[in-house]
């Protein structure tokens, strides 16, 4: 769902004969306005994160040495001079990139939106920027706009689309570029950083939001640099939403995030629209907060040729279920090769996730936080009039205690076949007798039709 453009983003007020220009503050929208804007995102639950850029060329190796850490950070971790790193950009030629195929893989997995790195910390942009020639069209032999291709493919397939954009920039002379080899310093300050913001970053963001009509999310990162602060973050948030009022922006637009927890010291979002826990699921969820866990399938975001430490499908699916039961979204990463190919281990896992989602997606999409806590045997999700008991550990005797359920469900049945299952009253609460064999070895869904419009 997208809101209609604001009728007026600035107001002219006449007070005592003096006319003042009042600019709309998008951080002060009403709860109803926010709910309308966030509705599609909250219902989507599951998205694809794509980290793709020039760092896929070295693929984790520099001067014959395997570099520790995540692949997209190789410029910083290996202390690569800007001029040397630019050679990877000039070699970036993803001739096998097929935007429709990437979108097909995402949609087949049951994902509802895609977020891709338009510009990572290395400063290289994979869209056609007129602000800079350090982009995929002007600086590579490929000479085509990947963001345009992918955004249009996503739109054709009915998926939402967003872009990641790094505030930090290891290449730009007015940002972190001059601080080689310590590109990632949290204390070094560039006296020209304000010029970078106004003449480079904001113009590039304006390009993204005006050249590409299907961008629904802006996903910032790299906000921990010394020159960034909440005042700049608030200004940037209003800047991008003036251009596109329906835009959803993550909380890394601000400066108060506490590491991988994805929230500020008070456990709140801070600036922006949703929190961003990274490589983790909050143990108790984040009540009252919109949040999205982003996670890798192996140990890197950007492609590394030798990282085969893949999570199995069971782990990935149960993580998605865990996130949904706690009221969050799950943004699962893929790291394509420099040729433009999503590695086969990723494709296969996503296909297996899609097989489960095609049968059981009703228990994930558009659901809310568990009304019954976290049972030992699995998780609950809920939506209007229904709760879903998602069973990881099928009981050997078939008797499943509906932990936390206070009122007898009107009806219970397995999502796979719809056949009714009797609900019994036991001393410890309500119990159902399940078939001997579970429908899924990963997670099986029991639907509980509840006694009111929502789960009780």
Q: TL;DR?
A:
It is globular and about 70 Å long.
Describe the structure.
The protein is of the alpha/beta class. It folds into two domains: 30-363, Glycosidases (TIM Barrel), CATH 3.20.20.80; 378-449, Immunoglobulin-like (Sandwich), CATH 2.60.40.1180. It contains nine helices and 18 strands. A seven-stranded parallel β-sheet has the order 9-8-7-6-3-11-10, sandwiched between helices. A four-stranded antiparallel β-sheet has the order 12-13-18-15. A hairpin with a 2-residue loop joins strand 1 (10-15) and strand 2. Helix 4 packs across helix 5 (146-156).
Q: Can you tell me the CATH topology of the largest domain?
A: TIM Barrel
Q: How many DSSP E strands?
A: 18
How many discrete domains?
A: 2
Sheet with most strands: strand arrangement: 9-8-7-6-3-11-10
Structural class assignment: alpha/beta
In angstroms, what separates the terminal alpha carbons?
A: 28 Å
Strand content: 15-25%
Question: Mean pLDDT score, rounded?
Answer: 93
What CATH first level of the largest domain would be assigned? Alpha Beta
Give the helices and strands as they follow along the chain: EEHEEEHHHEHEHEHEEHEHEEEEEEE
From the alpha-carbon coordinates, what is the Rg to the nearest angstrom?
Answer: 24 Å
CATH architectural type of the largest domain: Alpha-Beta Barrel
The backbone outline, from C-alpha atoms, is globular
Largest sheet: 7 strands, parallel
The helix tally amounts to 9
User: Would you identify the regions where 5 or more consecutive residues have pLDDT less than 50?
Assistant: 1-22
Task: Assign a percent range to the helix content.
Answer: 10-25%
């Amino acid at each position: 769902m997208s809101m209609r453009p604001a009728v007026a983003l600035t107001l002219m007020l006449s007070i005592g004969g003096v006319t003042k220009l009042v600019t709309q503050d998008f951080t002060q929208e009403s709860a109803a306005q926010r709910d309308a804007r966030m509705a599609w995102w909250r219902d989507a639950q599951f998205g694809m994160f794509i980290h793709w850029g020039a760092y896929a060329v070295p693929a984790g190796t520099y001067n014959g040495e395997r570099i520790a850490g995540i692949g997209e950070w190789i410029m910083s971790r290996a202390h690569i001079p800007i001029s040397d790193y630019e050679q990877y950009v000039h070699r970036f030629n993803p001739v096998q990139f097929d935007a429709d195929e990437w979108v097909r893989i995402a949609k087949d997995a049951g994902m509802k939106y895609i977020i891709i790195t338009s510009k990572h910390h290395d400063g290289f942009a994979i869209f056609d920027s007129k602000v800079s020639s350090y982009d995929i069209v002007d600086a590579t032999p490929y000479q085509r706009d990947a963001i345009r291709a992918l955004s249009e493919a996503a739109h054709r397939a009915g998926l939402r689309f967003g872009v990641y954009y790094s505030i930090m920039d290891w290449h730009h002379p007015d940002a972190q570029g001059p601080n080689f080899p310590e590109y990632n310093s949290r204390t070094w300050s560039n006296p020209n950083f304000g010029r970078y913001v106004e003449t480079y970053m904001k113009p590039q963001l304006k390009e993204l939001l005006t050249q590409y009509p299907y961008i629904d999310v802006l996903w910032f990162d790299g906000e921990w640099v010394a020159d960034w602060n909440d005042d700049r973050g608030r200004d940037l948030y209003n800047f991008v939403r003036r251009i596109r009022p329906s835009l959803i922006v993550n909380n890394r637009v601000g400066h108060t995030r506490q590491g991988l927890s994805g929230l500020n010291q008070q456990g709140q979002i801070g600036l922006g629209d949703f929190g961003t826990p990274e490589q983790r699921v909050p143990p108790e969820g984040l009540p009252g907060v919109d949040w999205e866990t982003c996670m890798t399938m192996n140990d890197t975001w950007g492609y590394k040729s030798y990282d085969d430490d893949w999570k199995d499908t069971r782990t990935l699916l149960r993580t998605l279920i865990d996130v949904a039961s706690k009221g969050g979204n799950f943004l699962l990463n893929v790291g394509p090769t420099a040729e433009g190919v999503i590695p086969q281990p990723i494709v296969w896992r996503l296909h297996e996730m899609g097989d489960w989602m095609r049968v059981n997606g009703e228990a994930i999409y558009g659901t809310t936080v568990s009304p019954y806590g976290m049972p030992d045997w699995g998780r609950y999700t809920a939506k209007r009039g229904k709760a879903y008991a998602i069973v990881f550990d099928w009981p050997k005797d078939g008797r499943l205690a509906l932990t936390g359920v206070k009122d007898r469900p009107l009806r219970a049945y397995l999502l796979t076949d719809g056949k009714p299952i009797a609900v019994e009253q036991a001393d410890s609460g309500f119990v159902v007798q399940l078939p001997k064999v579970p429908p899924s070895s990963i997670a099986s869904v029991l639907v509980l039709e509840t006694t009111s419009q929502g789960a009780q």
